[in-house]
Amino acid sequence: MYKKKIITAVTFLFITVLAFSQNEDSVMIKKISDEILLHGKAHSNLYTLCKSVGQRLSGSAGMYKGEAWGVQTLKDAGAINVYLQECMVPHWVRGKKEFAAFTKAKGSNQFNILSIGNAVGTGKTGVSAKVIEVKNFDDLNKRKDEVKGNIVFFNYPFNKTLLRGAYGDAVRYRSSGASAAAKYGAVAVIVRSVTAAYDDNPHTGALRYNDSFPKIPAVAISTKDADKLSNGLKGIYKFEKLFLRTNCLMLPDTIGHNVIGEIRGTEFPDEIITVGGHLDSWDAAEGASDDGTGMVQSIEILRAFNAAGYKPKRTIRIVLFANEENGLRGGNKYAEEAKVKKEKHIMAMESDGGAEYPRGFSCGMTKEQYAKVENWKKYFTPYDADKFSFSEGGGGGADIGPLQTNFKTAQFGLNTTGQRYFDLHHAATDVFENVNAQELNLGAVVMAAMVYLVDKYGL
Fold first, then answer.
1. Type and span of the H or E element at 48
2. pLDDT band, residue 104 (cuts 50/70/90)
């Protein structure tokens, strides 16, 4: 009987302590949430970034202005230690505005295009050739004998039925289409923009050349003009040559920086939680959603912790990564230096999916770690952000991926509804005005909640 009473008492005590702890966590998360939703600085910080700095293509003057903005914004948020981590970055230059038209055809025949990042240019004289339209790589291979000396047009539409995988499905034509066509002797490629949006805005992005084949010019064409070109090739443009001129070139690598700010942990300062987004953006617009939002959300976590009076046990490090778009030099450099310094990275989180309503996290970690994370879902339900996905050893984002490789660091990638993001992605429409303040702040709230829980309980 006595033993039974002891067991009952211990069980009751455990339940009481657990309930108190959960209530304490709910109170702190609510306090952090209220601070962000009522007094948040993410939206105003994004405004300054977009309107005072603008585009931040690696190697450009905008990149250095962005670095200076990052240093000051981190200091304003209360970061104790703010510094620049040097890395070499690619320096691709777009040059003068691109031009594409059927010069002999009648009617409106000029097209909205943007050179694809890292592409070579045509030079001042341009190229003039017949356009061969293909649906996909299989179609290209079937028509390989028609390609030599001509321009290949990859007209592969965004698959709207793939609610989460449409970008990955279509982006292969932008990233490797040039080399696939060059293999058969093409002189240039045109790629339908990787977006579900139907408008006149071409979407740029990066390509990767296969060094086994010649490097040829590559441009993205707006979705409306992709249809105009496709229809014209069946009629008025069928026997005409397209004149294409681009002025881009790749200069030697130059110096860039990761911008880093942190608050040191009170109990385990050598255990590091990394949170960040990438500093660079394409030059077509302001880089608001890609990835200004990820940066300001990350910085907001640090500011909100300070404002709410939360003193983290572990070191919280905010990183604004250099060169995610066309090289990933910043993420790799960060992991390399961490390895040299023998740092202990227990968690990394990334926001690089825009600022739509948060829905949860993609979690790359061990099964044991994810079991612990699943127990925290209840804290995210009030924000409708309790949809977690798990991949053992998987990643939460491109910039933090090297940490998983080098340290087996648990990864969190913020997931949003994601239905508007690729309408803006790498296009002229990626501007401050297309970011909603409440959605942006809610993303920061759920990120902060997860950082708080990992900091308090570890993984």
1. helix 42-48
2. confident
**Quick one: which H or E segment has residue 15?**
helix 2-39
Query: Do 191 and 158 touch, CB atoms closer than 8 A?
Result: no
324 is catalytic: yes
Per-residue model confidence as pLDDT tens digits over 213-255: 999 999 999 999 999 999 999 998 988 999 999 999 999 999 9
Please give the distance of CA 458 from its chain centroid, rounded to a whole number: 26
Residue 35 has pLDDT above 90, yes or no: yes
Is the Cβ–Cβ distance between 89 and 254 less than 8 Å? yes
All structural domains of the chain, each given as residue ranges with its CATH number in brackets, are 33-91+252-457 (3.40.630.10), 95-247 (3.50.30.30)
**DSSP-derived secondary structure for 371-440:** HHHHTTGGGTGGGT----EEEET--S-TTTHHHHHHH--EEEEEEE--SSHHHHTTSTT-SGGG--HHHH
178 touches 218 (CB < 8 A):
yes
CA atoms within 13 A on the CB side of 106: 2
Q: Which one is catalytic: 98, 286, 324, 356? A: 324
How large is the average pLDDT for residues 26-48? Answer: 98
